[in-house]
Write a structure and sequence with these properties.
Radius of gyration: 15 Å
Helix content: 40-55%
Structural class: alpha/beta
Number of helices: 6
Strand order of the largest sheet: 3-2-4-5-1-6-7
Strand content: 15-25%
Largest sheet: 7 strands, mixed
Length: about 170
C-alpha cells in the first residue's frame, strides 16, 4: 500500500504519518529529505521531528536520491515514512533541471514496484496566491504536478487540516 498525506504547513500531516507508522506494527524506516544548511529554524524543526520518533525507527537521510533510498529500504514487512516530498523537490530544483528530471522519474519508477507500505508526506502549496518569482512559480507547479501523479498511483490519499486527517481516496481500516 502506498499513501500520500497532504496538508499545509503545521497542519499535522507529519504527526498523522507517524501515527500510521506506529499503528502499522511494521518495522519502520523514516526517510528524511531535509537539509539544514545554515538555518537554525530548520535545525529546530528537524530536532522536533526527531524527538517525536521512536528511537528504534531506522533513519535514512535522502535529500536528493529518494528513489534510490526507497529501492534500497522497501521490504514487504516494512513501512517507509518519507517526510517530506516538498523539501525533496526544493533540493532538486536547486540542483538544476537535469538532476530534477532524473530523480523525479526515478522516484515514480521505483514506487511502481516498491514492496511493503510507503507513506509520503508533502505540503500542499497550490492554494495560495501565484508567487511573484519564477523559481517559486515553478516550485508550486512542480509540486502540484507531482502530487497529482502520486495521488493517481497511491491506494490511499489523506488531507490533513488542523490536525484532522480526512481520507480523500481509499478505504480507512
Amino acid at each position: 500500500m502506498h499513501e500520500l498525506i497532504l496538508g499545509g504547513a503545521r497542519s499535522g500531516k507529519s504527526v498523522h504519518g507517524e501515527a500510521l507508522a506506529v499503528q502499522s506494527a511494521c518495522e519502520v524506516t523514516y526517510i528524511a529529505t531535509a537539509q539544514v544548511y545554515d538555518d537554525s529554524e530548520m535545525r529546530a524543526r528537524i530536532e522536533s521531528h526527531r524527538e517525536r520518533r521512536p528511537s528504534h525507527w531506522v533513519l535514512v537521510e535522502a535529500p536528493l536520491s529518494l528513489g534510490e533510498a526507497i529501492e534500497r529500504h522497501a521490504r514487504a514487512d516494512r513501512l517507509l515514512l518519507i517526510d517530506c516530498l516538498t523539501l525533496w523537490l526544493t533540493n532538486l530544483l536547486l540542483e538544476g533541471d537535469e538532476r530534477f528530471v532524473q530523480e523525479r522519474a526515478r522516484l515514480l519508477e521505483v514506487l511502481d514496484h516498491a514492496p511493503g507500505r510507503v507513506v509520503m508526506v508533502s505540503n500542499e502549496v497550490g492554494q495560495g496566491v501565484v508567487p511573484m518569482n519564477a523559481l517559486s512559480r515553478r516550485f508550486v507547479d512542480e509540486a502540484g504536478q507531482l502530487h497529482q501523479v502520486l495521488a493517481s498511483r497511491c491506494q490511499r490519499v489523506w488531507w490533513v487540516v488542523a490536525g484532522l486527517p480526512q481520507c480523500l481516496k481509499g478505504n480507512v481500516t
